[in-house]
Amino acid sequence: GLARDADMFATITEKEGRAGAALAARHDLPSTPSGAAGLAAVHAASGPARQALGLTPASRLLVILSEAPE
User: Fold this and answer.
1) Of 9, 25, 56, 62, which has the fewest CB atoms closer than 10 Å, so is most exposed?
2) What is the mean pLDDT of residues 58-64?
3) Per-residue DSSP letter, 69
4) pTM value?
5) Do the Cβ atoms of 33 and 21 come closer than 8 Å?
6) Quick one: average pLDDT of 4-26?
């Protein structure tokens, strides 16, 4: 299961989820706040969180939008 296989977990607020969905929509990729949760988590990550994940300006990420807009 996910708890066994994942290296890290992230939580986001409702506001961050809405911001993630809005960010996706601005790039012509409409989704719901929960569908864009991965994007929202990366977008909301602070400096220490980005460091913990090893993210740099040169990093490339794959984010899956899992839902179409309602």
Assistant:
1) 62
2) 91
3) -
4) 0.82
5) yes
6) 92
* Residue 70: closest CA among 41, 33, 38, 45: 33
Q: Could you tell me the pLDDT band of residue 37, with boundaries at 50, 70 and 90?
A: very high
Asked if residues 65 and 42 have their Cβ atoms less than 8 Å apart, the reply is: no
Asked if 34 and 17 count as a contact pair (C-beta separation under 8 A), the reply is: yes
CA pair distance 31, 36, nearest whole angstrom = 6
Task: Give the span between the Cα atoms of 26 and 6, in whole angstroms.
Answer: 29
- Give dist(CA 21, CA 48) in Å, integer: 23
CA distances from 36 to 4, 19, 23 (A): 23, 9, 9
- What distance lies between CA 62 and its chain's CA centroid? 10
Burial class for 3, CB neighbours closer than 10 Å (0-12, 13-18, 19+)? exposed
State both tokens at 25: 């929509």
